[in-house]
Each structure stands twice: as C-alpha cells, then as structure tokens.
Amino acid sequence: MTRCIRHAAAFCVLLLVALLVNIAWLQVLQSPTYGGNPANRRPAIARYQQPRGEILVGGRPVTGSKDTREQLRFERTYTDGPLYAPVTGFASQLYGTTLLEYSEDAVLSGSDPMLAGFGLWRGVAGGRSPGGNVVTTIDPAAQRAAFEGLGGRKGAVAAIEPTSGRILALVSTPSYDPSLLSGNRPAVSAVWARLNEDPERPMLNRAVRQTYPPGSTFKVVTAAAALDAGVVQDLDEPTDSPDPYLLPGTNTWLYNEADGCANASLRHAFEWSCNTVFAKLGVDVGVRGMRAAAEGFGFNDKKVRIPFSVSPSTFDTRVDRAQLALSSIGQYNTRATPLQMAMVAAAVANGGQARSPYLVERTTRQNGGTVSTAGSRPARQVMLPATAARLKELMTDVVTEGTGGNAAIPGATVGGKTGTAQHGLGNAGTPYAWFVSWAQGDDDVEPRVAVAVVVEDASARRGDISGGGTAAPIAKAVMETVLHAPPAG
Amino acid sequence: MTQAGTAVAATAPSAPADRLPRRRGVELFLIVLAVLLPVCGYCAVGLARNGAVPPGAAGYGAGLGVLALVAHIAVRLRAPYADPLLLPIAVLLNGLGLVLIYRLDLETPGDEAAPAQLVWSTLGVGLFILVVLVLRDHRWLQRYAYLGVASALALLTMPILFPAVNGARIWIRVGELSIQPGEFAKVLLAVFFAAYLAANRGALAYSGRRVWRLQLPTGRVLGPVVTVWLLSVCVLVLERDLGTSLLFFGLFVVMLYVATGRIGWIAVGVLLATAGAVAVGSLEPHVHSRFEEWLHPFASIEAGQGPGQVAQSLFSFAAGGVTGTGLGLGHSILVGFAVKSDFILATAGEELGLAGLSAVFLLYALFVERGYRAGLALRDPFGRLLATGLASLMALQVFVIAGGVTGLIPLTGLAMPFLAQGGSSVVTNWTIVALLIRVSHVARRDYDGTVAP
After folding, report:
1. Cys-Cys link to B378, which of A79, B19, B56, B383 (CB 3.0-4.6 A)?
2. What ipTM does the predicted assembly reach?
3. What is the mean pLDDT of chain A?
C-alpha cells in the first residue's frame, strides 16, 4: 500500500505542476495579449479611475470631474459647456473624445509619459500619472462676447492675436452642453441621438470644421495678390475694369451690388466691394499668382492642427479663366473656415507675416510644473510688407468710409472687410454674412486682434443679410473686449 | 513502541525509533503567522480602497486569532503528536479567503458575504474542535461506515426536492440558510470507501476471475462499493453537479488503486470516465456549453456578446501578471456571478499575481503532502486509506476548480477549499482537517521509523 500511496502523491505532484505551468503561461506570457483584448474592460476602468486633468481658460478650469463611485468612476463636467464646446469638445465614456479633449487626451488622462517626473519610476510602478492640465489661449471675455453676439443665430467666430497666432476666441452656435455626453447612462445615448439628428447640427464646430464660400472677404487675398504681383501699382488708379464684367470665354455677365464700379480704383472697389474689379484682377494675376497668395495665407493646407485638425480651406487651382474670376471673389470652389479668414486678417494686420494659429499655450502637471509650451511659432511672410501696409489702409477705409462702418471703435484703428456669400443651387440659399477685421488700439504698438465672423441666418430676410449689418457688430464686440483687456504678458 | 529517552533514538537511528517530537510550539508560532498575514491583507485592502486601516481590523484579527488559538489548544489537549503544519495552513487559507471575500464585498454593497463566511468558519472550527476532542480513535469511524454512507446518499438526494439554483440542483434552502449537502457527503463517502476497502482489500486484490491480464474481483466483493459510487454519481448528474461527480469519481479510483495496488483499476476507471464524460458532454446542454466555453473561451466576444465568465476569469489572471495589482486594486468583479465562490481564485490571481497564486497552490500542496505522509506512517489499513482519501479529496478539489477557472480543464462548479464563499464547504473542510489531525496524531505517536513521516 505504501508504494501506491506514493504513486497517488506523485500524481498530485503532476496535477500541481500542470496548474503552476498553466498559471505561469497565463500570467506572464498571455498577460499583454489578454490585457489588449478589446473586450477587456480594464483599460477603460483604469482610464476613468482618476479625475481627468483640466482645460483652463483665462486661468480658470472650464472642466471638472464628478465622482460617480461606479466602475467607470470619474465623469467629465463642464462649466459654461455650450460656450466652450468648440474648444473643449467632449470626453464621453460612451462616445470617446473630440477637439482638445481628443488631441490633448494623453496629458488630460495622465497617460503621457512626460507627465511622470521620473520615467523609470513610472515603469516600475506601472501606474498612471495624475491627469495634467491644458492651458488654452482663449480669452474668456472675447469668447463670451462672440457667443453672446451670435445669440441664437447659426454662425461662428474665430479671433486670433495677429502677432503670435494665439486663438483668442473660437465660437460656434448653436452649441451644446458636452457634459450631457460624459457618462454612460441611457440618457447619454438619448442625448447623443438627439444631437446627431438635430438639423441645426449643434455638435458641428463651425469655426474650424465647416467651410463656407468666403465671398467678398476673399477680396483681401485677391488684393494682396494683385499688389504683390504689381498688377495694381497705385491704389487710386483706375483698374481698367468694365461693369458688368463678361466672364472670360463665356457669355455670362458678372454684376455688382454697388454703384460706381466701372473702371474703379482698387481703393473704391475694396471699400464698396466691386465684384467686377476683383474678378478681373484675379484673372490678370493668373492662377499661379492667386494660388501662391491663397496658399500663403493657409488655403489648401490639409495639415493644420491647432492642435486638433482644422478642415482645409480650399482655393481651386485647376480652373479656367471664368472660374478663376469667380474664385477670386470668393465663389466657385473657394471655401474657407472662419479660422482661415481670421488668419487672413491677422496676416494683413501683422505686416504680411502669418503665424500658425494655436489654442494650447502650455500643458502642465497637476502640481503646475510645465510639461510643454507652445513656444514661438515661425512666421511666414505671405506678402510684401508694403502690400500689407496698403491693405491695412484699404481695410481701415472700409470701416471708416465703406461697408464696415458698424465695426468702428473709438480710440482704435480698425480694419475690416464685409462679405455676403452666395451659395446653394443657383444661389438660392440664404447668403452667408461675413466680416473679417483686425483692431489696434491707439496706444498699442501692435495689432491686438483679428476676427472672422460668419452668420448663416436662415430666418432673416435676404435683404437684411450683409456682412456689415449682421456680422460686423459681433466682430466689433469681440475686438472691443480684447482691446479693453490689459495686454497679455 | 518503546518509551525510551531521546538519547537512545539519537545514538541508534537504525533501531525502532521513538515517537516523533510533538512540535506544538512550532504549530503555535506558525498559527501566529497564519493569523497575522490575513490581518495584514485586511489592512491592505482598506488602505488601498479608502486610504485607511479598516475599522474592523482589530476585531477581525482578534476573531481569527481566538478561533485559531482555541483550535490549537484542542490539538494540544487531545492530539499532541499531530502534524504541526495542518492547522496553520488551514487557518491561513481560511483567513485569506475571508480577506478576498471582504474585498469583493466592497464592490457589491448590499450583498455582503464575509460576515456569513466568518460565522460558518466559526462553526467549522467548532466542529473541528468537537472532532479532535471526541474522536479518541479514528478506527471508531470504521464501525459506522454503513450508517455514514446511508446518510451520505440521503444528503445527496435531498436537493432534488428543492428548486434548482443557477442550473444546478445542489442546494437546500431553509429560510435564509442555504446548505449544499453534497459537501458533507464527500467526507462520509471517503470514510465509507476507506472502511469498505480496508475490510475487503484482500478479496479485491486476489479473488475473482481473470480476464485477459486483469484480475476482476467477484461481484459480491465489489458490488456494494460500486453501487454506492454509481448511485452517487447518478444523483449528481441528475443534479448537474459535475464538479462533485468528477470529485467522487476520482476519489473512488484513487482509493481503489491504493487499496488493491492494481493499475488495471485506473485503466478501467479512466475508460469509464471518458465514456461518461463524452456521453454527458454531448447529451446534456449545460455540460456541452461549458465544454465549448473551455475550448473557445473568446467565442462569445467574436460573436459580439461580450466576454463570458471563463474569458473574464482569464482576463483577471492575465491582469495580475507576476506581482499582481495589489489587494483591493484589481477588477476581478468583472467576472460577475460566482466571483466570490467558484471564481474566487481569479481575485487571488489578479491581486496577488503569479507569486501569490503559486504560494496558495503550494500551501494546498503542502497540506496534501502532510495528509499522504500521515497515511504512509500509519499502520492500520483503514487509517492509511482514510488519510490518503482525504488528502486526495483536497488535491482533486483544488485541481478541478483551479484548472477550471484558469482554462486548463472544462469548468465545473466546485468550491476552492477554505478560500471560496460557501458555508457547507468551509465546515466540511474543517472536518477534513480535524480527521487528518487525528490520524496524523496516531501516525506520529506510533511512528516506528519505517517510513519518513
């Protein structure tokens, strides 16, 4: 019997070895594979285990975290959610992240290796760092002015600091409250469905993700191209342009809304937005010159990140002369985001130097230590400084004497350009009201702000829609707010 | 057996040896460690979850300590030669089980199992003390073997009268209490097998016809034991308690082999088991699905239905890695249903890691080894078979459930001894410890130096 008991014991040893080998295989070799299985909830649990870092506007967080004590523990909250939604985006347990929540997710969620002071220690501890903070360039007063200026209307505002490229305001209306999407309850799915089915598209970031025909505001680009190319030497010289203008190679006539456009000077044409003059100027400059000017301002750039992606603004370069004429007055396939048009105004204001726009000033650890800073961005000279100076003059004239009078601010130099963009089949859609502008206080050494406003107000009567009447007051409010604030250090 | 002084034994190792040293001091020292370790674990859970030592830590430590100490005193009084490792291992595993259940209770507020488990553990230790004090000689059990097997069968059949719970008909519900009588039947059956086989081993080994190379015993000799075994397995299959039927089957084969020394029995047993498993596996949907889940644990993920329990359990073990996430910091609660009972090992695997889990397995192995060692040192066939049977019972339980939750073999519902939530199981396992303490006391007291204890 002794021998048999020993056999039984040996059998138990075999069983034990099988168990040990199996768990070693499972816990050492299979660990990464199973950990990465999409059905494994652990990564999601770890992600929501700690509060997310904050997004700061004007030194104050516009985000927060709510401890739900559930499996996915922390949920995102937002203060003034609809106001900042085009900046923050949402961070949802069900639907992922967008905009800054998406592009800065590594910092906010604490997974960025830069957050850990000692990389080696983090490897040993295997943990996540506390979520870092994202400091934005947004000026809360300007943001609010733009939001309130748009009111309930459909539209967008983008404002940037011309000398640096810092984005001061990014507003899109109608907006939504991203905190409604944070959690994972059934109500969240209901809100998601409602927001997605809403014909007003509240989750669309119109300031950076929607392109519009820029209409007459594009004439700034055309004027810059014409001046740079030497097609126009003197602002007050007649441009030898007919009214109406026969689109080259077609039987189609182009008309003006304003009077006195026949053979008008560039100054008059710019002030009163003569289509005929700019269509002809575009054709005179040629596709190559127009393309160089447009792309200098940032058109056709598919890689713009602020740090989230911006829809590329387009200037079609495969056009015949008639299409080029229309493209040059911001129609045909020319499309721009409000941010792009703010960049155009900013480049003019900044002496012809364009700076890449950016939204994140710096990222910090939870304790305030800096992880990364925006640093100084390289500037591109997109037009001759002399051209920029003359364009500033033209834009100032628009506000002091022309269609942009509603943007005038006492004690400041304001330059602007109105636009009323046709769109839809046979131009049947309600036109978009545009206004692009910049402002420099009388005591300032540099321009302080460049703004682009677009209002796509379907409810207004067609006759009332004009850049000067609808969009300019909003731009004025934003610029005034920035000018009255003390300059940022 | 002489009562000579230790000096004789030391100078003449080849002569019949003296009784082995009592080692009660070692046992006490190990028990202190076995109480301190779970108390540390209890505090670790509290610190990890709430940043503070749980308010009940002192009470918990005192409770476990008093239980262990009283058991130790009972051993000192009535079984002073007993193996000093058995009790500390049981205390440590039981304490660890309580920590794991407490830890899982934090995830399921409103459904707390740790307090009930503590009550059952107390009952178990009470029964342990009773057995150690009352059972003066284990051979006394031999006389009541038939009464034991009758009660075992009665216990096994009882749940058929009660409604099924989660697909298995193995519970009796009396008000708030739910008892799993099959658990108690295990010990009674082991006692019966040991008694019967010890009484008839000569006839089993040497009588009967010879078929090819296999010597078959006469039906008269083998009849009763096969009947009992078949009855219990049939009942269990009816109740869909696969784990226990597998356990009984393994127990029967091992004990028959140890009693007769015939390898043929194992061959027959394995053949029968395979045939039975294939038949049940293909006919019974409950079993078939478990078999499928074992072969393809991630099939439900690919089908878009999310991970099943085995997949979740595998995720848990994998998440633990080598060092584990630390007590209280894992997410084995994702296993869901039965996480505190059948799947308790997943929590151990995730939070203690490969290191902790190996330690747990080695504790069981040490316990089983001590059981076999008592069996080897004993001289009466009943005691030898009983010790071997109880040790095998423990080993098979651990293998069947641990192999199931780690995907080594198909999953069958069984409770991890001492660790898992389950009153009947804790009480039964404490009874096993008590019986092993008793037989090891005799084994070490009457040690004659022929085999290493």
Report:
1. B383
2. 0.91
3. 88
